Structure formats: C-alpha cells, structure tokens
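Deliverable D2.4 — example input (structure tokens):
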C-alpha cells in the first residue's frame, strides 16, 4: 500500500516538474526589445534576425554562452608545431620522377605545394579567441563566419568530393593489422617494424618517428643516379613521403616528431589515396581544433593552420595591407589556389598588444 501511495505521489509530481522545466526554459528565451518607431513607421535599427541572437540581451542563450569562463577570459597567443619547417626538410624536388608521379597522383600534392606560408601567431590567435564550438562559427561584431569545404578547395586545392576517410579508418588497430600494413606499404618485416616503434613505458607505442622515416627514404634522386632504384623501392619511398605529409601537413598534432600507425590505413593502397575528399577531412578536424583552442586553458593549437591563416587574409585584406610582415607573392598566378598568395616574413614572437582586433 505504501508503494502505491508513493507511486501515486510521484505521478502527481511529474506535471509540476515539467511546468518547472518549461518555466526555466521560457526565462532563458530572448526578450523582445522595445522598438523605437521611425518617421517611416518601421522599427528603427532592428536587424534581419528579429533580435533573436544578439548578445546584448542578458536572457538570451548566446549571451549565456558568451559569459562562460572559456569565452570571456580566453585571450592568449597559441604555440604551434612548425609544419612548414618539416616540409622544407623533405622537399619533393629531391625525389626521382617515379616518386613524384606517385605523389602528384595521390590527391595530396596540392596541399604540399600550397603549404608554404609560415605561421602568423597573431592572426590565428585573434580569430581562435572568437570561435564558438557550440555553433562552429567565428562570432564577429557584424556577423558569424566559418571555414567551409569550399575554402579548403580554393585555398589548398584539396578535393571535396569522394570517399570519406572514416570509411576504412580504425582508431584501435591491432598489432597484426599494423604488421600487414607496414609490409604492404614499406616492405618491412615484423622485426623491422618493431624496431621502428617509439618505445613506451612497458610496451612500444603504435607510433613512428618522422625523422627516421625521412632519413630512410629521402633523396631518391641521388640514390637513383648512384645505385639505381627498383619500382618497389620508389613505391615504398612514395608511401613514406605521403605518411610524412599526413602527419606534418594534413593532420598535424601535438605529437610533433611522431606519427600514429593508424594513418597507414589511409595509404593502403596508394592507388586509392586520391579517392578520399581530403578537403572535407581537413575542415572537420580543424573545426575540432578551433573548439579546443577557444577554451581558456588551451595554450597550443595544431592542424592545418594555413587554411585558417589564408582564409583570414582572403576575407579581411585590411589585416595584411598595412602589415609589414605579410607580403603578396609575386610568383602567384590567378589559376592557382590562394595558399601561396601570401608570404609571412616576420617573426612569430609577437606580443598580445600587437593583436589585430
């Protein structure tokens, strides 16, 4: 009997709880502003959105988000792994024609060519402060803006149509699966693969050092002239170079000199690499990095920041016209992606007082 009364009591309380929740939600809605009527009879100064998203109204959802500690206090300069310097250490010009053919047909060649701008810390930091992961846009005084897949195509020359990189990607590859991939891509046996893994506390990490991969395969142009190279050796070199590109340019992260063995899945086989829409993948990963960078305690940002940096200069030309550190590339042509249009010649060591906005 007690259970019946208790159940009945809870049943009677449910409508009251729902009413309470509805009341709380209603209080969070944006209040309608008082409209000042102009002589024309129309409300003066009312925006197109009907004043539904302006942060000036304390009861609005966007004002609540804006006042969180991450967005209110996040103001800092971000450190960044220098992917530009990594690619200079392994220039494609030093590889033989057969290796370059593999790379040029891979769908990743454009990102190598258009990733020649160095890191502008002030520009990137200023816009990351204004990124809101809740809506995946930059909240600017005049509107919201976002980096789109079309920007990846126009700036980096990356294709935005094709297969998803998630179709065959497994984040937790087994050891046997890694051994099969390294044998197919590089011709390594199990002992060679084990010797190249980054040592861990108890067990090896499923990662390789980029330096070791570069030293193993770099400068096939000279090797071909001295000893000659077989087609398989050129194929192995191309696989190593593309893995280097994925870790340094396409999906760079805080690991710096290390690359996850999981990326090998995207290169098997080399003939299928050009079927992925790399532009979509870069934008998706970059937005996730923006969301993390907008948090107060984040001090380092990664991923392909050339896309963001050139996007800023393309949409806000006033930010580089009076900037002595940014120059237009005289060798750039109108038929090329805009990734090589700007040259940043200044130092990365900027103070926050020099920020653009």
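Example output (designed residues):
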């Amino acid at each position: 009997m007690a259970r019946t009364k208790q159940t009945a009591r809870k049943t009677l309380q449910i409508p009251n709880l729902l009413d309470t929740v509805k009341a709380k939600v209603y209080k969070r809605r944006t209040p309608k502003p008082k409209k000042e009527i102009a002589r024309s009879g129309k409300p003066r100064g009312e925006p197109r959105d009907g004043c539904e998203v302006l942060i000036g109204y304390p009861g609005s959802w966007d004002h609540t988000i804006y006042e969180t500690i991450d967005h209110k206090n996040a103001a800092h300069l971000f450190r960044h792994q220098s992917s530009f310097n990594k690619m200079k250490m392994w220039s494609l010009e030093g590889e033989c024609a057969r290796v370059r053919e593999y790379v040029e047909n891979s769908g990743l060649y454009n990102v190598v060519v258009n990733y020649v701008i160095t890191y502008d810390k002030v520009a990137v930091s200023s816009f990351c402060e204004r990124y809101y992961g809740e809506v995946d846009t930059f909240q600017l005084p005049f509107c919201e803006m976002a980096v789109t897949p079309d920007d990846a195509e126009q700036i980096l020359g990356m294709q935005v149509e094709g297969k998803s990189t998630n179709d065959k990607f497994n984040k937790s590859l087994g050891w046997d699966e890694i051994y099969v991939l390294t044998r197919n891509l590089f011709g390594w046996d199990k002992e060679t693969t084990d010797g190249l893994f980054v040592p861990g506390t108890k067990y090896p990490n499923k990662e390789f050092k980029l330096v070791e991969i570069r030293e193993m395969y770099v400068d096939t142009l000279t090797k071909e002239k001295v000893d000659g190279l077989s087609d398989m050796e050129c194929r192995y070199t191309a696989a190593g170079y593309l893995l280097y590109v994925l870790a340094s340019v396409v999906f760079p992260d805080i690991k710096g000199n290390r690359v996850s063995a999981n990326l090998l899945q995207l290169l098997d086989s080399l003939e299928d690499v050009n079927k992925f829409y790399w532009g979509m993948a870069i934008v998706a990963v970059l937005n996730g990095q923006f969301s993390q960078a907008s948090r107060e305690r984040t001090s380092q940002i990664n991923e392909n920041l050339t896309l963001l940096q050139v996007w800023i200069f393309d949409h806000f030309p006033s930010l580089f016209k009076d900037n002595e550190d940014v120059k237009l590339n005289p060798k750039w042509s109108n038929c090329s992606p805009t990734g090589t249009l700007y040259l940043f010649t200044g130092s990365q060591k900027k103070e926050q007082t020099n920020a653009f906005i």
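Residues 66 and 72 are 6 Å apart (CA to CA).
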